Here is the input.
Amino acid sequence: MTPGQHGDGATRAQRPLRIGLIGCGNIGQIHADGLRKMSEDGEIVAVGAADPSEASRTAAARNCPFEYLSDDARRVVDDADIDAVMITSPTSTHRDLVLSVLASGKALFCEKPLAPTLGVVRELCAAVATATRPAQVGFHSRFHPIVNRIYGLVDSKELGAPMAYTLRDDQYWPTGAVVPGHSSWRSQRDQAGGGALLEHSIHAADLVCWLFGPAVRVSASTRAVFGYDVEDVAAVTVEHTSGVVGNILSVFNGVRGREERRFEVFFENGAVEATTDFIVGAAEDSYLVQRPDAAPERPDLGALREEFFTMLALPRRDFVFYTYPADRHWVQCVQAGDPARPGFDDALRAHELVDAAYRSAVTGSIVTP
Ligand SMILES: NC(=O)c1ccc[n+]([C@@H]2O[C@H](COP(=O)([O-])OP(=O)(O)OC[C@H]3O[C@@H](n4cnc5c(N)ncnc54)[C@H](O)[C@@H]3O)[C@@H](O)[C@H]2O)c1
Here is the structure.
């Protein structure tokens, strides 16, 4: 039997992809909403969802009518009628789940960060490298239309080569000690692996490696202002293989509701300034392009979004988070047997940047990832 075929000889592309979800908390419920959309469109079947918490299972089921719910992830992993599994449980649980899904031969989606430590991330990347089915990581910022516009400018060299950037990335502290109803594993280093930089701004680390190449020199300072054993502030200076240099400032802040990414990129012949959030059409979204001897251009953001979503051939627009286009991309890659991006090798570069930053913060020296 070749990869992508079932025992009955029918190819996976001949039936909607049958998906299981492991982890029904905050982000699992958001993915569940996307799964419902795709199942309504006949693109997938939402087969099973697993979580030890009944409250989480019930909340995920409100967003998507799974065929069954279970308190045991093994039910989904071992289900021969499931083709592909999304892992959206806490970071510390990813290792065992990723390895068991790979052993089952199913396609895989895993949320970021892949693991609390770089050693485990490397172990998972090595295991995925030998897998025959697509594996994608939850860096859904790569499906943001403004970020893709910036990628297009880098790729086309329309403004010359990129030279330097600043990226300020902040989010309200997403821990149960601060936000009623939230879980609290993010406050614990053994569970989360790190704070603002690893848990949140690994999205930023992924974006700058995607745009400018892997990091080659990193220096950083971190602080823990709120009293947890993970950092809530990280200031990182990065030099990339391309020669581009930049700064990432990552903050878990105390301003309820605040979440914003401010990205400025300087090219040889131009500059861009962009503000983005994780929500489609967020009020803080902005995008400005400055060319020599010209007034700043402020493209219409609605038109820019529409152009991007049309390019992705998205069948609907009633989604709030960029997880939907990311998840749909994964489904299409699995159906086609194509490599799914961003993959584990992309995630490894982001993790290496973050790990180098943490080592630099401890030693006070410049670190090579
Ligand atoms: N891509 C993004 O923007 C994004 C956003 C939020 C969270 N995340 C990541 O997603 C993961 C989950 O985060 P969250 O905010 O949803 O956490 P959460 O605490 O809100 O939810 C986690 C859920 O997983 C369940 N769970 C724990 N162990 C499990 C196991 N072994 N099998 C099945 N379920 C299990 C918990 O009961 C809980 O319901 C983390 O790795 C986090 O970093 C990514």
